[in-house]
Specification:
Radius of gyration: 19 Å
Low-confidence stretches: none
Structural class: mainly alpha
Strand content: under 5%
Number of strands: 4
Number of domains: 1
Order of helices and strands: EEHHHHEEHHHHHHH
Length: 295
């Protein structure tokens, strides 16, 4: 059997793997959004800019400091997380008791400022970033060749999503986080420093975006525009999965990546909009999203 529904198997599997790669980025980015919204009640439109910043810091580390990929994988997310902490302390902490629209407008403005700054410094042209030597080449699966770096993206993003879910849902620290957002006054009365927990939560969400940017740097052109091109799709993923749902973000991100990949070979005309078509259908039947809780 060399084809399925008239589509060559190597072509079909190639698109499925590409869909899994895209889905991995959707899952990680929507996970960061879900953490920030679920814990802090902020719709973080600056998430795409933070993702772009992680990729740009990776490229700058190699270009100006000679830092390789593995050092950037450690340092860039920390740098983006620290920037997120500064943003939370200077700006976002004043918005937690206000309507969601204020946080959305503020973070949208921040995204424009960050993107404009990088566009001014580096222009809009894409910058190449080489795949590390350890991850060059491909695995021969018999029916297709799987690039090692794509396999690395899928495996590492799934591991990060699993660890994040475990920390938030199964550990004492995660319990503190949930308690601090559900009843901050009572949590503070037990001696837990709620402002510090909130600050670290936003920094962690920002760091996840930065880590996604590091993983993306060798897989695509590093550009100040890369975040704005992706964030709308990621918001659709979050809405479909359910705002604030950790599990919903991961499952929906991967699933929509696969659907998008299959659409490119089965019906290419809708591949660019299939995510939004799914969003409309889901919201018609489940307004809170697939994993969201009805109020």
């Amino acid at each position: 059997m060399t084809d399925i529904f008239g589509i060559p198997i190597p072509s079909l599997m190639g698109q499925i793997m590409l869909g899994l790669v895209n889905g991995s980025f959707y899952a990680m980015l929507s996970l960061g959004l879900a953490v920030i919204f679920g814990m802090l009640n902020i719709i973080n439109f600056a998430h795409g800019a933070l993702y772009m910043m992680g990729a740009m810091l990776t490229w700058m580390g190699l270009e100006y400091l000679g830092l390789g990929y593995w050092w950037s994988l450690l340092l860039a997310p920390i740098g983006v997380g620290l920037i997120g902490i500064v943003i939370e302390r200077l700006l976002l902490q004043w918005l937690y008791q206000l309507d969601h629209i204020y946080g959305l407008l503020l973070t949208f403005g921040l995204a424009l400022i960050i993107e404009g700054l990088f566009r001014y410094l580096f222009d809009v042209g894409g910058q190449p970033y080489s795949i590390p030597d350890e991850l060059t080449g491909a695995f021969n699966l018999g029916f297709m060749f799987l690039p090692k770096y794509r396999a690395w993206i899928i495996a590492s993003s799934m591991a990060i999503c699993l660890v994040t879910w475990y920390i938030i849902e199964k550990t004492r620290l995660g319990g503190y986080l949930r308690a601090a957002t559900e009843n901050p006054q009572l949590t503070q009365a037990f001696g837990i420093n709620v402002p510090v927990i909130v600050m670290l939560t936003y920094g962690f969400g920002a760091g996840l975006a930065g880590l996604s940017g590091v993983l993306a740097a060798p897989a695509m052109q590093v550009s100040p525009l890369m975040g704005s091109n992706l964030i709308i799709v990621v918001f659709a993923v979050v809405v479909i999965g359910g705002m604030g749902s950790i599990l919903g973000s991961v499952v929906t991100g991967l699933g929509l990546g696969l659907i998008e990949g299959l659409a490119k070979v089965i019906y290419p005309e809708i591949s660019a909009t299939v995510v939004f078509i799914v969003m409309v259908v889901v919201l018609l039947f489940r307004p809170a999203g697939l994993f969201g809780k009805e109020k």
